[in-house]
Specification:
Length: 545
């Protein structure tokens, strides 16, 4: 729930701090007092678009802070952990700065975040509803049914993605086949050219090594010859040393034997060096390939790589052969792709039809629940229906194959039609409230704001709306901006918004009313400027009820 809202330098507000309570909080005040400014400020704190018009005249910076507390199982906590945002005591603090150049900064628990993230998280905490509720848009009806029925759309989205990918693969191959003759001609020439070049695995590295050997053959041969002579001399010395030690071995066996063993090892290892050097010398001296032929071969291979835009001729050769084979077997390959498309289409339709059944059950449950909410709002003759229709194939999508729209019939004998076209202003306000009472029971948003939802109603109807708001506030926090005394009388908390003019400056203030002050405010709403005793008595009756 929203615990507190602090506002500085927003439109007519200088410096304001509000504390909110659970249940139904009503905000009243004269028209133009600044109630809408509070909504603008809260929207700013929750990621709405920052506009310089919101900055108080003469101020260089505006700041809005909104503090929330949530239940431990709210899904928003996992998002905070995902983004590495710290939190303590289940508190979340949104803060937004706006300067005179229109630049803004967003903070969550004092950590800088993006406006997009702030808006997405804010939408999980607060919903604002006015006379022209978003549920008037038929595009929102499917989302409302899915939320109400707690429907998982991941399977249908995955199935549609796979189906679309298969269709694209088939379309792309058809386009390839349309250009098949030219492509096959190119592939055959490329394959022939590559096979004629006969590249070997790792050939370029081998050629570079041989090129280095040929280019420096004389130096290498001279160095090897010198090393070979020196190693031969060492070997001769080791033989003589071994014979000398053998002659005196019997005089000091315990001293001489270890030396003889070491000499044996040295002779063997030196012989290995000598033989290796001899072999390498013969290889260097026996190299017949010319430097020019090696460079020609390297140039040939690298030219082919550039020509066919590849770094691995062997891999490209295999790919070209596979593509040529597929094109030559084009009809068979198309058949295989078409079978895949049909298979994935069937899988998509199976999930889509299961989704449709789930939506129809949710729609029926919503109709039943709403029928119980309409009589208390003086809409006992109204009927509400959720129309679930299957779309033509061109309308299929990641959300399934359904078109969902809310239909109503407000009076017996009157025509049934789409919600947006049939319902009048006063009836619409009540119907929106009834829908919200039912739909919010399945949602996770803990705070709802109703902005003059009573528009077009009055008297007993407004009183009925107040009663339903009170019922809804038992499980959610509600903020109701209202001009209706019947709704204001049901508030658990009452804030009045008013303007003060001082020294040529106008500022908006908000005051939390005591019980006696609430009586006076409700009486004012009933009577107008001159509060009568009859109005006070009526206010008492409203508040007692």
């Amino acid at each position: 729930m929203l615990n507190a809202l602090s506002i500085r330098n927003v439109v007519l507000i200088d410096d304001l701090h509000l504390d909110f309570e659970k249940g139904l909080c009503v905000l009243t005040g004269e028209t133009g007092a600044g109630k809408s400014i509070l909504l603008d400020a809260l929207g700013l704190a929750l990621g709405a678009r920052a506009e310089t018009r919101l900055l108080r005249q003469g101020a260089k910076k505006a700041e809005v802070t909104a503090c929330f507390s949530l239940l431990v199982d709210h899904p928003l906590w996992s998002e905070l952990e995902e983004h590495g945002i710290p939190y303590d005591d289940l508190q979340i603090i949104f803060r937004r700065h706006l300067d005179e150049e229109g630049k803004s900064k967003c903070f969550l628990n004092d950590q800088l975040i993006s406006q997009t993230l702030m808006r997405r998280l804010g939408q999980q905490l607060v919903e604002i509803h006015g006379q022209f509720d978003q549920l008037l848009d038929a595009k929102a009806h499917m989302a409302a049914i899915d939320a109400y029925g707690k429907i998982d759309k991941d399977p249908i989205q995955t199935a549609f993605k796979d189906y679309q990918a298969a269709k694209k693969a088939l379309h792309d191959f058809h386009e390839k086949m349309a250009q098949s003759f030219e492509r096959q001609t190119f592939l055959r020439f490329a394959i022939e050219e590559m096979e004629k070049a006969a590249p070997r695995q790792g050939e370029e590295e081998t050629l570079e090594s041989e090129k280095s050997l040929i280019a420096h053959r004389a130096k290498i041969a001279d160095a090897l010859s010198t090393v070979e002579e020196n190693v031969n001399a060492v070997l001769t010395g080791l033989f003589h040393s071994h014979k000398a030690l053998t002659r005196v071995q019997d005089y000091l066996p315990e001293k001489i034997n270890p030396l003889l063993e070491a000499a044996d090892r040295a002779i063997l290892e030196t012989q290995e060096i000598f033989e290796g050097m001899s072999t390498l010398t013969r290889e260097v001296q026996g190299t017949q390939q010319s430097l020019e032929s090696l460079e020609n071969r390297l140039h040939s291979l690298r030219s082919l790589c550039r020509k066919y835009k590849t770094q691995d001729l062997l891999s490209s050769l295999l790919e070209f052969k596979a593509e040529l084979s597929a094109l030559e077997q084009g009809e068979n390959h198309i058949d295989a792709l078409e079978r895949t498309v049909l298979c994935l289409k069937d899988a998509y339709l199976e999930k889509a039809q299961a989704l449709s059944e789930s939506r129809k059950k949710a729609a029926l449950a919503l109709e039943t629940a709403l029928s119980q909410e309409l009589p208390p709002l003086k809409l006992e003759h109204a009927k509400f229906r959720v129309k679930v229709e299957e779309l033509a194939e061109k309308g299929w999508g990641a959300a399934g194959i359904d078109h969902i729209e809310f239909y109503t019939q407000m009076n017996p004998g009157s025509p049934e039609g789409p919600l947006a076209t049939i319902v009048s202003g006063g009836e619409l306000s009540r119907l929106m409230l009834a829908l919200k009472v039912v739909l919010t029971q399945s949602g996770a948003v803990p705070t709802l704001i109703f902005d003059e939802i009573e528009s077009g109603t009055g008297g007993a109807v407004a009183a009925a709306m107040g009663e339903r708001l009170k019922v809804l506030s038992q499980n959610l926090q509600l903020l109701a901006i209202t001009h209706s005394p019947q709704i204001a009388g049901h508030g658990a908390q009452h804030l009045v918004v008013f303007k003060v003019m001082q020294s040529g400056t106008t500022t908006t203030h908000v005051k939390a009313l005591t019980h006696e002050e609430r009586l006076e405010e409700v009486a004012r709403m009933l009577a107008g400027e001159e509060i009568t005793e009859e109005a006070r008595a009526a206010a008492k009756r409203l508040m007692r009820r």
